[in-house]
Each structure stands twice: as structure tokens, then as C-alpha cells.
Design a protein that fits this description.
CATH superfamily: CD59
Number of helices: 2
Main location: membrane
Helix content: 25-40%
Protein name: Ly6d protein
Number of domains: 1
Order of helices and strands: HEEEEEEH
Organism: Phodopus roborovskii (Roborovski's desert hamster)
GO biological process, one term: lymphocyte differentiation
Radius of gyration: 23 Å
Pfam families: Toxin_TOLIP
CATH architecture: Ribbon
Oligomer: single chain
């Protein structure tokens, strides 16, 4: 009798509907993390990183029904372009893959400080 009950339990678990996918769903200038249960139709977690050298990058994460990655390599991205990354699995879009060129990662303040220090060095050296 116990064997029959265990088999019925195993069969019920195996044929029960799968749990809905969970993805991080948010929009930010940094790697945002906001877990959310996706609609039943969602099959992918999607991360879109828009590159902008002047205003900084924008990261958007969402649940989507279908998704196609554009797999750009670092250094091949120009300002105004975007990188799309798709994955399947709960909270698989937690990590942010850096696809922006190194120059896009500097903030305006960092660039201004570097230029000021360079100018100061030139003045001190008398060039």
C-alpha cells in the first residue's frame, strides 16, 4: 500500500504544472536586482544594456515570451547602441555582463577630474 501511495505521489509531482519563472524586473543606471514572478507565458529573462558615453549606461531587466541575444563583444559597442542578453532559469539575469567599451564606463566627473589633473601637471611642469 505504501508503495502505491509513493508512486501516486511521485506521479502527481511529475505531472503538476511547473512553477512560474522568476526574473529580476527593473530599470536603472546600475545593475538593479528586483526579483519578480513572471507571467506563465514568459520563457526568458532579458537584460538590455543601452550604452551612452555622456549620460551613462541604462540597464533594463524584464520577463519576456521570446528573446534573441545580440552577443556583442567588448570594444565593439558605440554610444547609443544596446546589448541584449537572454537566459532561462530563475533569477538568471542577476549578473550584469559588461559589454560596454571601457571609455563608456567612466563618469563625467571622473573624466573632468582626469583632465583637470592633466592640466595642472602641465602648468607645474611649465609646458
Amino acid at each position: 500500500m505504501k508503495t502505491v501511495l509513493l508512486l501516486l505521489l511521485a506521479l502527481a509531482v511529475a505531472t503538476s504544472p511547473a512553477c512560474a519563472l522568476q526574473c529580476h524586473v527593473c530599470s536603472s543606471s546600475t545593475n538593479c536586482k528586483q526579483p519578480q514572478t513572471c507571467p506563465a507565458s514568459s520563457q526568458y529573462c532579458k537584460t538590455v544594456t543601452t550604452v551612452d558615453t555622456l549620460t551613462g549606461n541604462l540597464v533594463k531587466k524584464a520577463c519576456v515570451d521570446s528573446c534573441t541575444s545580440n552577443n556583442s563583444q567588448q570594444g565593439q559597442i558605440s554610444s547609443g547602441s544596446w546589448v541584449i542578453q537572454c537566459c532561462q532559469g530563475d533569477l538568471c539575469n542577476e549578473r550584469l555582463y559588461n559589454a560596454a567599451p571601457a571609455r563608456a564606463l567612466f563618469s563625467n566627473a571622473t573624466l573632468g577630474l582626469a583632465m583637470s589633473l592633466s592640466f595642472l601637471a602641465l602648468m607645474v611642469l611649465g609646458l
